[in-house]
Design brief:
It comes from Centaurea solstitialis. 42% of the residues lie in helices and 21% in strands. It is an alpha/beta fold and 450 residues long. The structure holds NADP nicotinamide-adenine-dinucleotide phosphate (NAP). NADP nicotinamide-adenine-dinucleotide phosphate binds at residues 11, 13-17, 42-44, 47, 70-72, 90-94, 97, 115, 117, 145-147, 186, 188-189, 192, 388-389, 393.
């Protein structure tokens, strides 16, 4: 029988992959860790070896074997998946390389986590593989990185602050990315964003082709849709902001739809009645709300710079020549934010993120139908952490993997799900708190409803 590794990190040689390897190795030799074996996988053994040297001076390829697998070679993916309990897929853009990896994991019945921020990939995988993944006992969870665990858990954390009879109506998440040096990210994330905008029509067509899902029951008025590029100044926060068309709102929405269909959450494959009650109790504290995500800057020139990057991607992505320009001159069109070589280690170490969740709702759900019908209560919560792409993302991914290894019986037998519905009722938030990603209640206050 082939060796079974607790985790196989596919795309270990990539910019993010190598930070994921470094984070995973912290748990390889620690006493109570469920990670007893790790293998690195990719298409180039020399690069995998360099990754291992960079990530750890103390581990050799004898302790951490290297597996050859290429996303364009399905038999190599099947060999990899057949040796894994969990594959952590760090090979992107996922729209190009992700689906064969999911197919191999589902076929092998192993679990699969990734750090995709591409809604079309995630929803296509759900449409094509969910039923087979249930049958095979393969749990497939995309978006286990900065996209979209802070948004999912941050939203659930804000929701839990609304104690009955209070109900939320809308949560606006304000994302701030800061650094003592420069905010820099690797090219692959930019490429995924450009390709996402270029193929927006495919996502619309995919959604139209799928059966209608249960809708979350949100109390109070639907948000007024404004122009996507409108800049706003939030006086209380002292921040300028503009809408961020990231995956977060769509991922949270999927979690809320699954919750509407399964009000007690998803049954664990081998959970006992106590755990089932705990899960149901957790979800009974969650009240659905609309979620919007905005990116912020402290100054007007700062937000204009972000808007300029967004507009250039929005305007040029749809045309082949425009795409060529965007993808060949990323540092020009992203005004220096995205680089083909990625950030330096110093830039990664000095970056951090902050996500403020400003929830508006009603102190009593009855008020939805009385008076002005406008929210009278504001609850502000916050998620903070280190560099979003290369420090927070590996922490988030590895903590999700640790939960899979330690608490598999409490999680669904298989299927394709967003992270919130799977990890929401687990101890993921506590684990993140212990690993440098904090969740805080900032304020609860009355606001004018007239
Ligand atoms: N959720 C988040 O917040 C978050 C954060 C960071 C990154 N990401 C996403 O993660 C993905 C990777 O980003 P990155 O910056 O690490 O990119 P990268 O540096 O370009 O790394 C890509 C990796 O994929 C591998 N690869 C490419 N084609 C392959 C193939 N055919 N078969 C096997 N391996 C292949 C590369 O292998 P070689 O070394 O052999 O070329 C490399 O290991 C992107 O989609 C990015 O958007 C998400």
């Amino acid at each position: 029988m082939a060796t079974s590794y607790d985790i196989v990190i596919f795309g270990a040689s990539g910019f993010t992959g190598k930070y994921v390897v470094r984070e995973a190795l912290k748990f390889l030799d620690s006493p109570n860790s469920p990670i007893k074996t790790i293998a690195l996988a990719g298409r180039n053994p020399n690069k995998l070896s360099e990754t291992l040297n960079w990530a750890s001076k103390s581990h050799t390829t004898a302790a951490v074997p290297l597996l050859l697998a290429d996303a364009t070679d399905p038999p190599s993916l099947r060999r990899m998946a057949s040796q894994a309990k969990i594959v952590l897929n760090c090979v992107g853009p996922y729209r190009y390389y992700g689906e064969p990896v999911v197919a191999a994991c589902v076929e092998a019945g192993c679990d699969y986590l990734d750090i995709s921020g591409e809604p079309e990939f995630m929803e296509r995988v759900e449409a094509v593989y969910h039923e087979k993944a249930v049958e095979k006992g393969s749990l497939v969870v995309s978006a286990c990185g900065f996209d979209s665990v802070p948004a999912e858990l941050g939203f659930l954390f804000n929701s839990r602050q609304w104690v009955s009879p209070a109900v939320p109506n809308r949560v606006e998440a304000y994302l701030t990315v800061e650094s003592d040096r420069s905010v820099v990210a690797n090219f692959a994330t930019y490429e995924s964003a450009v390709l996402g905008v270029a193929n927006a029509d495919k996502l619309v067509a995919l959604r139209r082709s799928r059966p209608k899902r249960a809708r979350p029951q949100i109390r109070g008025p639907a948000p007024v849709r404004g122009p996507g590029s409108a800049i706003e100044y939030h006086k209380k926060l002292g921040l300028w902001s503009v809408k961020l068309p990231s995956a977060d709102a769509t991922v949270v929405r999927r979690t809320l739809c699954i919750l509407a269909e399964n009000p007690k959450g998803l049954q664990g494959v081998n959970e006992d009645p106590k755990q089932a009650n705990k899960r149901a109790a957790f979800w009974s504290t969650i009240k659905p709300a609309h979620l919007g995500v905005k990116i912020t800057a402290k100054t007007r020139p700062g937000i204009l710079r972000i808007l300029a990057i967004g507009l250039s991607i929005g305007m040029l992505s749809s045309y082949p020549h425009g795409r060529w320009l965007l993808l060949n001159f990323p540092w020009v069109f992203s005004l220096g934010v995205f680089k083909k070589k990625g950030p330096t280690e110093e830039e990664v170490a000095s970056a951090r993120f902050k996500m403020l969740f400003v929830g508006h709702g009603f102190s009593d759900s009855e008020l939805v139908y009385k008076g002005s019908g406008k929210p009278d209560t504001e609850i502000v919560t916050r998620v903070t952490g280190p560099d979003a792409g290369y420090v927070a993302t590996p922490i988030l991914l590895i903590q999700c993997a640790l939960i899979l290894l330690q608490q598999r019986g409490d999680l669904p037998k298989g299927g394709v799900f967003p992270p919130g519905i799977v990890f929401g009722p687990t101890d993921l938030q506590d684990r993140l708190q212990e690993n440098g990603i904090s969740f805080d209640l900032i304020s609860k206050s009355r606001i004018s409803s007239t």
